[in-house]
Amino acid sequence: MKKLTFASFLLILPVLFLVSCHSGGSQYISSDVVNNPNTADGKANTGMLPVIKFDEDVHDFGKLIEGETVSYGFKFKNTGKSDLIIADVSTSCGCTVPSYSKDPIPSGKTGTITVKFNSVGKRGFQTKNIVIVSNTQPNTTVVRIKALVVSPGSEK
Q: Is 150 exposed, middle or buried (0-12, 13-18, 19+ CB in 10 A)?
């Protein structure tokens, strides 16, 4: 009886594995837009990849009064030869919230990543990183915002 139960388990296990790995919806990126240019010999073929080129990679808000919320749009251009896809934008602090388009940016076209910085509870010199993950090589790009946050009444 134990052998029969064990044999049944072995037959059902692959089916359970296949069913459990299916994720109801399609959240995958088409393999047509994924290109890994790295090779074993270390000579990367990046000629056909998108390239994200920012107008500026650091924005200084200057002096802010604690409690102010400010925003800035980092403008960029895809100077590469294929569609640019931004997979994720994250920040180094919950006080900084990014927004961006999920649509592919064709070669030669522009886009904007907007970040809002909330200075509540912040004082002194602040620098926040915004990390962009995309289908470029390398796949991460970092831009920054900075500000000097002063207490209300001390802005003179």
A: middle
Domains of the chain, start order: 52-150 (2.60.40.10)
pLDDT tens column, 58-87: 999 999 999 999 999 999 999 999 999 999
pTM exceeding 0.85: no
Adjacent-strand bridge partners of 72: 115
CB neighbour list of residue 66: distance below 8 Å, 6 or more residues apart: 119, 120, 121, 122, 123, 149, 150, 151, 152
CB-based burial, 51-63: b 16+ in 10 Å, e otherwise: bbeeeeeebebee
